[in-house]
Design goal:
Layout (H helix, E strand, L loop, with lengths): L2 E3 L6 E3 L1 E4 L10 H13 L4 E3 L8 H10 L8 E6 L15 H15 L4 E6 L8 H13 L3 E6 L4 H13 L4 E4 L14 H8 L2 E4 L39 H8 L2 H7 L3 H10 L4 E6 L4 H7 L9 H11 L19
Parallel strand pairs: 3-4, 3-10, 4-5, 5-6, 6-7, 7-8, 8-9, 9-10
Antiparallel strand pairs: 1-2
Helix pairs in contact: 1-2, 1-10, 2-3, 3-4, 4-5, 5-6
């Protein structure tokens, strides 16, 4: 495993972050989830990402159980706040002071920890003044409940405003957690240049495009049994990528991965890690074997000519519009 600094800070994270968005308390049994976390630890992954909304708070509890007994100082644990949780009452959502202060306490209880290393705004809340949100985050940092602050799916303008307020409050906003992959490159035009200027780096989610970039989904063929796309509980976000046009283009990447002696999944992970503004790529796994295989992407150097070929092959199916980095126009409750 290799480690990189997160933003303009002295805080290091593992190049692969174990995330439990669609797995813990949803796709796999708790015993299997715990064994997969332990395989990640055995492979040198020390950074773990979760959120209160995953499995409506249950995923945090599973991760807490899985990490119990580990030396806390040797881990980097991230969680997030924004989406509706619990009973979904009016204040169970958003980035108000009330919801943030109550949410961090709930997350720490479920994780069985005194603090998280990184607390992230899961989306931008258009209904709460940014000053209120950042003051609440600052208070959480001063209380020792979080060490650093980050955001997820904020656009460049929102990140700039958040960093400015964080500096005024003497706290560090050091990370952005956007979707990023060979097929989804919307952060390259605006978010990444802004973050490079401001000392913020990326922890990217869905680097394998929900599994599409592993090559297991074939054009004109039914989705494999047991795959994410076959699970009605979690397959909503993948459907738009399961077109024959996209899947045909993805199959053209296999010879490139073969030339490098790596799997398609490892190729997708290594590709995002080539970006100097990316500190980590989040990987989800449903088995110890899967996470161990993913770790094989660490340290892979992709030649520039291969990077260029990827861009050329996927040009017609890659999403690049920066306006796709967005938050809801209003809260859901």
């Amino acid at each position: 495993m290799k480690y990189r600094y997160l933003g303009n800070s002295g805080f290091k994270v593992s190049e692969l972050v174990y995330g439990n968005w669609l797995t813990h308390a949803t796709q796999i049994e708790n015993e299997r989830a715990i064994s997969t976390v332990h395989a990640a630890l055995d492979g040198g992954i020390t950074s773990f990402d979760t959120a209160d909304v995953y499995a409506n708070q249950a995923a945090e509890s599973v991760l807490g159980d899985a990490l119990k007994g580990q030396r806390r100082e040797g881990l980097e644990v991230f969680t997030k706040v924004y989406w509706p949780v619990a009973e979904r009452m009016p204040n169970d959502h958003g980035l108000s002071r009330k919801h943030i202060m109550e949410s961090i306490n709930g997350s720490l209880k479920r994780l069985q920890m005194d603090y998280v290393d990184l607390y992230q705004a899961h989306r931008y809340d258009v209904e709460t003044p940014l000053e209120e949100t950042m003051q609440a985050f600052a208070d959480i940092v001063r209380q020792g409940k979080a060490l650093y602050i980050g955001v997820s799916e904020w656009n460049a303008e929102q990140i700039r405003a958040g960093v400015k307020l964080a500096k005024e409050l003497n706290i560090q906003l050091i990370s952005s957690q956007p979707q990023y992959s060979m097929l989804w490159r919307v952060i390259e035009a605006e978010v990444i240049p802004t973050c490079e200027e401001l000392g913020v780096s990326q922890i990217v989610w869905s680097p394998m495009a929900q599994g599409v970039l592993t090559g297991k989904y074939l054009p004109g063929q039914p989705v494999p049994a047991g795959s994410r796309a076959s699970d009605e509980k979690v397959n909503g976000s993948i459907q738009k990528m399961l077109t024959d046009e996209v899947l045909t283009k993805v199959q053209l990447l296999k010879p490139l991965a073969d030339e490098l002696g790596i799997t398609m999944a490892q190729f997708a992970l290594a590709w995002v890690l080539q970006n100097k503004n990316v500190s980590s790529a989040i990987v989800g796994a449903t088995s110890p074997e899967q996470i161990t295989s993913n770790i094989g992407a660490v340290g892979v150097e992709i030649p520039q000519e291969v990077m260029t070929k990827v861009t050329e092959i996927l040009a017609d199916v890659t999403v690049t519009d920066p306006s796709e980095t967005k938050s809801p126009e209003a809260r859901l409750v």
